[in-house]
Amino acid sequence: MKRIAMGWVALVIAGLIAPFLVYPVFVMKVLCFALFACAFNLLLGYTGLLSFGHAAFLGSAGYIAGHTIKVLGFPPELGILAGTATAAVLGYVFGSLAIRRSGIYFAMITLALAQMVFFLALQMPFTGGEDGLQGVPRGMLFGVIDLRETMNMYYFVFAVFMIGFWIIYRAVHSPFGQVLKAIRENEPRAISLGYAVDKYKLLAFVLSAALSGLAGATKTLVFQLASLTDVHWHMSGEVVLMTLLGGMGTVFGPVVGAAVVMTLQNYGAEIGEWVTVLTGAIFVVCVLAFRRGIVGELAALFPVRKP
């Protein structure tokens, strides 16, 4: 518990001072993807379900949030809620179909459904096609706070991240989270104990989708853009990389993984396409030598001593 408390304090302090040390827009990008990775980790790390379609939730929420704010005139908070709700509904539909299978079949179903969302995003007129949905206004938060000011926007994004992160933390440290871990470790045993496994998996899927949507809607507000990149299958692969690199099944692992991947992409842009080779090499080394991820290996190096 002491280590967890220290982690929370470090996270809050780092979030408060980060925009004074690093370019705020970059930190906002890291926070959005960190929330996305944490939401994905809830499904993979704690439930044992590998989804290759999570980009559908990130991107669809971004498009809906952008459209409701830009075209329908919603305030930013309602636009984000609309995007999150859309991702949750989509997650229910995807989950209801996908949880009927397991393993690679589950992963392939999520990928196929996500590709359908990508096709819709490419063809539907309100998305802007290959140009994306551009010029989304940030607006006034609650009619009072001007999100066009970078620092106001940053602390709003940080607040959204902390809320999402806290929801995930409470979920995995609750009886519900313990059942998810039981399903991950031994699903037949969980069934024999009387748990409605499919209902738990569906609830985890919907919660993960909703929080992924929250990340996507917030990202659209930050960059004032929703694009096809957010719904592409490559984005689903990226979130797997972030989760495994930081530490699957750990609380803070996906945050670290997202920070590492975003830093490599941002500051490694000077080397062009080689940045993908560098990222891939780091991933291979991590999988072969540090299978528990960065945070998992650190936790193993410094175990908690029980009194």
Molecular structure report:
The chain is mainly α. Helices cover 73% and strands 3% of the residues. The strands form 2 sheets. Strands 1-4 form a two-stranded antiparallel ribbon. It has a two-stranded antiparallel sheet with strand order 2-3. Strand 2 and strand 3 form a beta hairpin.
Offer a few descriptive terms.
13 helices; two-stranded antiparallel ribbon; 307 residues; 4 strands
Order of helices and strands: HHHHHEEEHHHHEHHHH
- Protein structure class: mainly alpha
Helix content: over 70%
Radius of gyration: 19 Å
Quaternary organisation of the protein chains: single chain
Give the averaged pLDDT, no decimals.
87
- Alpha-carbon distance between the termini? 12 Å
Low-confidence stretches: none
The proportion of strand residues reads under 5%
Explain the layout of strands and helices.
Elements: H1 2-21, H2 24-47, H3 55-70, H4 76-98, H5 104-123, E1 133-134, E2 140-141, E3 145-146, H6 150-172, H7 175-185, H8 187-192, H9 197-223, E4 225-226, H10 233-246, H11 253-267, H12 274-289, H13 293-301
Antiparallel strand pairs: 1-4, 2-3
Helix pairs in contact: 1-6, 2-6, 2-9, 2-10, 2-11, 3-4, 3-5, 3-9, 4-5, 4-9, 6-9, 7-9, 10-11, 10-13
Q: What can be said about this structure in brief?
A:
With 307 residues, the protein is mainly alpha-helical. 73% of the residues lie in helices and 3% in strands.
